[in-house]
Backbone:
């Protein structure tokens, strides 16, 4: 009985993986062909890259079903690098291998854990930018013209492209757009609209004898080894490109892993994922195929079809090989305008519509970050955009935390001392002043708090009470030194109240305590106040 139940369970699991592999392969085929053409590697490199990477990363990666291949962000970055390398395949292979090695090296560190700390506005701005780039770059191919290398060039050429458009290309492109955008969900669930559009519009263009640019030739033979450049000069020159691609490969893979975790209610090892992707990309690069990452859309399609194990990531490339060998003549007839329309739909799907619906309610800081990343992504550089977005988000966060850091003044009143000092000063409470640092004392708040100590006229002893358990960063330590110097210049002695032993130890190591004197450091405020009173009485 147990044997039968176990067998039934295994059959159910395999059935889910089988349908997951088939469903994701149907989505992969048009996308891999389109991205291969868009990057300059060629349609064959796109489909073989999807086959090799998905198989290698699936076999070596985590147990969760992740379908790998070129994605929108990856395609845009690779296309930019290809243009910078003058479409030199050997140079591109060298860059890809370096990027893959960086991925493997990163898997040996804690870097994969950091992706979850990237702010959502940065991710949204980047994805929206990538979506718009894909749409803009495919406008010319949709009208029967060559794709231009940048969004700015494409936008500037649109007027001329419209005047000289290929009517056959725009006709078949519009039909493709209608199919991919308006296919009913019930049909799309079982047969993705992209594969419907690819098959029908290719057949229609051949049937009508339309004069169109087509894929023309897709190699069905196994790709051959490509020799990379191994001399030091080339490796140094290609380093920035390799780092750029490695970042996009890795970030896209890890984000897909997080999505898969949320759907499967499991938790994969991101280091394991990154290492498998790196090894897969090395295999792609050495064969001149287009590398990539774990693909969110294809992985979700596999999961929704019932996939539960990595077997689906093995079935996917096996099915692609069958399709490629069996239908290579048909694939060669696919019009580039059809691929352009499919990519426009992919670009639209990448756009973060969820955020756009609530954008008017979003905090201003988030909007600053989002639009900064978006415009830099579309009109300048993707990786610079992400770096600038993370930096801006960090600075704005630091500002918010710093704004919460306050100095709370608490005048000290003691009836005995007040009676004793009445003859010296009517406003006695300024002689001893307690200042609490409320909030974090770090580089963001330090500079703000320094200005509060500009004028301590009339104060003899200032008790600075740091109540937090957080260690100070170097900026805060230097700021504390600055405060001590400012107070000394005003002939004000500082007493420190540090309630945390680790913070006190840190200040001793940085010679802060020695600057004010060991006797002027306390663990509680009452002791500091009593000591200040004694000093004041002794002075009098």
Residues:
């Amino acid at each position: 009985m147990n044997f039968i139940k176990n067998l039934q369970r295994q059959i159910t699991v395999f059935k889910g993986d089988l349908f997951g592999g088939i469903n994701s392969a149907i989505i992969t085929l048009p996308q891999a062909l389109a991205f291969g053409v868009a990057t300059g590697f060629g349609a064959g490199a796109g489909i073989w890259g999807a086959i090799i990477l998905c198989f290698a990363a699936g076999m070596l990666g985590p147990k969760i079903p992740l379908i790998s291949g070129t994605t929108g962000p990856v395609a845009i970055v690779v296309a930019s690098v290809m243009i910078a390398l003058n479409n030199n395949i050997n140079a591109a292979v060298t860059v890809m291998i370096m990027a893959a090695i960086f991925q493997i090296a990163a898997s040996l560190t804690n870097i994969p854990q950091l992706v979850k700390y990237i702010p959502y506005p940065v991710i949204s701005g980047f994805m929206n930018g990538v979506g718009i780039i894909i749409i803009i770059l495919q406008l010319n191919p949709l009208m029967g013209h060559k794709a231009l290398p940048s969004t700015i060039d494409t936008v500037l050429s649109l007027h001329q492209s419209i005047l000289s458009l290929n009517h056959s290309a725009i006709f078949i492109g519009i039909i493709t757009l209608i199919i991919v955008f308006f296919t009913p969900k019930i049909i799309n669930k079982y047969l993705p609209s992209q594969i419907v559009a690819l098959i029908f519009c290719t057949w229609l263009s051949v049937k009508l004898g339309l004069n169109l640019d087509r894929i023309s030739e897709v190699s069905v033979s196994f790709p051959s080894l490509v020799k990379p450049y191994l001399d030091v000069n080339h490796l140094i020159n290609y380093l920035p490109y390799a780092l750029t691609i490695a970042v996009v490969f890795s970030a896209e893979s890890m984000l897909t892993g997080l999505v898969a975790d949320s759907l499967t209610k499991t938790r994969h090892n991101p280091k394991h994922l990154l290492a498998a992707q790196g090894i897969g990309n090395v295999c792609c690069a050495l064969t001149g195929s287009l590398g990539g990452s774990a693909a969110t859309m294809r992985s979700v399609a596999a999961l929704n079809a019932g996939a539960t194990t990595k077997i689906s990531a093995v079935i996917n490339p096996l099915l692609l090989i069958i399709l490629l060998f069996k239908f290579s003549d048909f694939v060669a007839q696919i019009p580039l305008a059809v691929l352009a329309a499919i990519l426009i739909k992919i670009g639209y799907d990448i756009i973060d519509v969820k955020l756009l619906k609530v954008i008017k309610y979003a905090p201003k800081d988030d909007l600053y970050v989002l639009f900064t990343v978006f415009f830099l992504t579309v009109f300048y550089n993707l990786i610079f955009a992400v770096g600038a977005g993370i930096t801006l988000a960090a600075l704005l966060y630091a500002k918010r935390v710093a704004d919460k850091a306050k100095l709370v003044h608490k005048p000290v009143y003691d009836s005995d001392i007040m009676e004793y000092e009445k003859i010296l000063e009517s406003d006695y409470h300024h002689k001893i002043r307690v200042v609490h640092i409320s909030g974090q004392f770090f580089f963001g708040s330090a500079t703000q708090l320094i200005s509060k100590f500009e004028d301590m006229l009339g104060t003899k002893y200032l008790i600075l009470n740091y109540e937090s358990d957080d260690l100070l960063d170097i900026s805060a330590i230097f700021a504390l030194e600055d405060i001590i110097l400012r107070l000394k210049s005003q002939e004000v002695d500082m007493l420190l109240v540090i309630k945390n032993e680790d913070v006190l130890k840190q200040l001793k190591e940085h010679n802060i305590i020695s600057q004010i004197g060991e006797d002027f450091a306390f663990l509680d405020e009452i002791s500091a106040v009593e000591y200040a009173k004694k000093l004041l009485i002794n002075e009098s």
About this structure: DSSP finds 25 helices and seven strands in the chain. Strands lie at 68-69, 293-294, 406-411, 432-438, 461-466, 493-498, 521-522. The CA atoms of residues 99 and 314 lie 24 Å apart. Confidence is low (pLDDT under 50) at residues 407-414, 416-428.
